[in-house]
Design brief:
Layout: H1 13-22, H2 33-41, E1 51-55, H3 60-73, E2 78-81, E3 93-95, E4 98-99, H4 102-118, H5 128-142, E5 147-151, E6 166-171, H6 179-182, H7 185-193, E7 203-205, H8 209-222, E8 226-228, E9 233-238, E10 241-246, E11 250-254, H9 263-279, H10 286-295, E12 303-306, E13 310-313, H11 319-329, E14 337-341, H12 349-356, E15 362-365, H13 376-383, E16 390-392, H14 396-406, E17 412-416, H15 419-431
Parallel strand pairs: 1-5, 1-6, 2-5, 6-7, 7-8, 13-17, 14-15, 14-17, 15-16
Antiparallel strand pairs: 2-3, 3-4, 9-10, 10-11, 12-13
């Protein structure tokens, strides 16, 4: 099998990636000063293209991927910036569905670093996410994209991406997460996520309850039209397909390539955005919509990677994501559930575990290779009230082998708890050639 060009190692690529990851020591910066200064020194590339800015607690990546796929099928040159990545840094930055090449990563890091140092930015150490964001915007500008889809990293108001020239904003939903940074409770979190709402720039959202009320208040103050799932547009199940209905358009018998009923809410947000783009004179016909949804790929989201036994990988990393995954799992016919869980220490471990553990026949707790991973001792403490059958295996490869070898052909193995867990497991299964 021929090696893809992008997989050929650039002589400086590993050194460059190590340099980028070294910026993680600067942590998270919740202000826009650093990114604004950096982008100004780079010529403000984020102003070279219109953007759809995508925030929310869950479903940001899937919604972005669907929208990208539809726009590409409509003939547009689309930039896509998402985070974090599953396996490779390059996944974060794409143009025309192609990851940024290794050689371009090296070139951009060298060039950006030189420009920033020449401009005196050496006194302001950029964080990893700020530098990656600057790379994405410069790459999109140089590739002359027609439109960029930009996913928020954390929160919204003070996220490094909140400098884009957005023409539509999306907030998929709001749930409790990152409360140390975003504040306690749904109202505070919604305020932060609503920070991406711009004056007069329409918002599409699937938020509900208190979060929706907060977003409406922000839109009211900023004179921003808001389009709400369930009111201004909706979806209806139609056998294995679904219908999208709104005030302006109806699309019958659609189908997305992404599995899981919860993806329909993400599809609805993407389609609601397409309607607004059409009103802005973007030429997106019904064929592009249908083909874009059917062709979309977004690995690690309720992804079946093996059969007999069925092995599913999902990035659920908070209680809302766990609820969605649990609902999807219960629609699958299986005899026993073998659960592989690796969760970050700063997450709501109790909330995640309480959704999954009662369903499982046996739980394998593990730790992805990141300093943020919760210890086996911590995970076991939270799982103990729900399950007596807990196996501690620190190495994810060993945990996958143990779970799969314990399972029969009609059982289900689910690997989840974090994007780091999902990514590491996926890489392992790819290397073994076991992907479905």
């Amino acid at each position: 099998m021929p090696v893809k060009r992008n997989s050929l190692p650039h002589p400086s690529y590993k050194r460059t990636i190590d340099y980028l990851y070294g910026m993680k020591r600067f942590g998270i910066r919740m202000n826009l000063k650093g990114i604004k200064t950096a982008l100004h020194l780079l010529g403000d590339p984020q102003r070279a293209f219109p953007s759809v800015h995508v925030g929310g607690s869950n479903g940001k990546g899937s919604t972005s991927a669907m929208l990208e796929s539809i726009l590409k099928c409509a003939g547009y040159r689309v930039g896509l910036y998402t985070s974090p990545h599953l396996i490779r840094f390059n996944e974060r930055i794409r143009v025309g569905k192609r990851e940024i090449p290794n050689r371009k990563v090296v070139e951009l890091v060298d060039r950006i670093d030189s420009r920033l140092k020449a401009g005196g930015l050496r006194r302001i150490n950029l964080t990893f996410f700020e530098f990656a964001t600057a790379m994405a915007f410069l790459y999109f500008a140089e590739c002359d994209v027609d439109i960029a889809i930009v996913e928020v990293g954390m929160g919204g108001r003070l996220d490094a991406t909140n400098v884009v020239r957005s023409i539509v904003s999306i907030i998929t939903n709001v749930s409790r997460e990152h409360e140390v940074v975003l504040g306690k409770g749904i109202r505070s979190i919604a305020q932060e996520k609503g920070g991406i709402i711009k004056k007069g720039v329409p918002l599409v959202t699937s938020a509900r309850g208190v979060a929706l009320k907060v977003l409406k208040e922000i839109c009211g103050r900023r004179g921003t039209p808001i389009h709400v799932l369930g009111k201004d547009f909706k979806i209806e199940l139609n056998s294995k397909n679904f219908d999208f209905l709104s005030r302006w358009y109806n699309h019958k018998c659609l189908r997305t390539n992404l599995e899981g009923a919860y993806q329909l809410f993400n599809a609805a947000c993407a389609l609601g955005t397409v309607e607004l783009l059409r009103d802005m004179q973007f030429s997106i016909d019904d064929i592009a919509i249908r083909e874009g949804l059917a062709r979309v790929r977004w690995p690690g989201r309720f992804e079946t990677v093996k059969r007999r036994p069925t092995v599913i990988i999902d990035c659920a990393h908070n209680p809302a994501g766990a609820d969605a995954l649990r609902g999807a799992i219960t629609t699958i016919g299986f005899r026993r559930l073998f659960l592989i869980l690796g969760i970050m220490d700063d997450k709501d471990i109790r909330g995640i575990v309480s959704r999954f553990a009662p369903l499982a026949h046996k739980i394998f707790i593990t730790m992805p290779k990141t300093e943020r991973a919760a210890s086996l001792k911590t995970l076991k403490k939270y799982i103990k009230p729900y399950s007596k059958t807990v196996v501690s295996i620190k190495d994810i490869a060993e945990a996958c082998n143990a779970a799969i070898s314990n399972a029969s052909d009609d059982d289900l193995v689910c690997i989840t708890g974090s994007i780091f867990t999902a990514g590491e497991a996926r890489k392992i299964l790819i290397s073994k050639g076991t992907l479905a």
